[in-house]
Specification:
44% helix, Rossmann fold, single chain, alpha/beta, three-stranded mixed sheet, 344 residues
Amino acid sequence: MLEWIQHGGGPVVNLDKLTYAGNMNNLVSCRHDPRHIFIRGDINDLEFLESTFLKYRPKAVVHFAAETHVDRSILKPGQFISTNVDGTFHLLEAALKYWGRLPTQGQEVFRYIHVSTDEVYGSLGPAEPPFTELSRYSPNSPYAASKAASDHLVRSYHSTYGLPVITTNCSNNYGPFQFPEKLIPLMIVNALAGKPLPIYGDGKNIRDWLYVLDHCEAVRTVLAKGNPGETYNIGSSNERSNIDVVRMLCWLLDELRPNAAIGSYSSLITFVKDRPGHDRRYAIDSGKIQRELNWAPRETFETGLRKTVLWYLEHHSWIQDVQSGSYRDWIEHNYGDRGVSCGA
């Protein structure tokens, strides 16, 4: 949304429930911009959704709303079913009702963009080719299963009712404003605090890393040029193991924020008990969106990671604000049982 405003996009209604990772401070840059309308609301409230559609009459819906953290889905899968499956169903119902009342020209330009994940495809072996849009669904966590279910719902609303939907499945995002439960920001904030850097298992699980601003540009491209009923995989061919990512972070922090008391930040790396059902490898083939829509990522992993570390170093107050008591409780609960304390 920030990128949409920055790039001169038209008015946008930003609907957010503001759960634990929601942060109004993320919106400071557009607080007084008349193109940005913020509404606090729940996508499971169908009556509220229907009235919001009628009030603001959008030309498109971009559905980012989701519970996203795999570890949380293992502990409390019900929240993921509620938001990712039920919430998507209610948003589809409201969008379909609204779209059905539009004049023909309005129906033709309307788009519903459903933002999903590569995790719906399951895990790849070391020599297997990257996921394509035709890869078989094989989710292995409650989070991945909830997103897979939502993908199927979205597809069905196109094939059954004609709703002009487009699905995107992206690889692991990283960059500014990411809540520090995910790997990269968690490692940065822990390292700066001199706390352990917990790595699941042997640290050799591989992910394809996508800089968040590249993802934003891809979504804008799909909205502008994507074909209804299609799926586009969004990745940047940046496969890295978790342990290699953390070591790169440590090297960057050694350069940018040296700490004589710690020495090298890599000394804080601590291997902990793996999480259940931990997929070994993800990789995305983004050839379709590059060929058909002329999108390509701008950042390499090296340039994107450096920008990310610099952002967190320059926004210490943001980190302090999001590390509330509930955040500390969650980190201690998730990692304390694995034999390492990362709490305050």
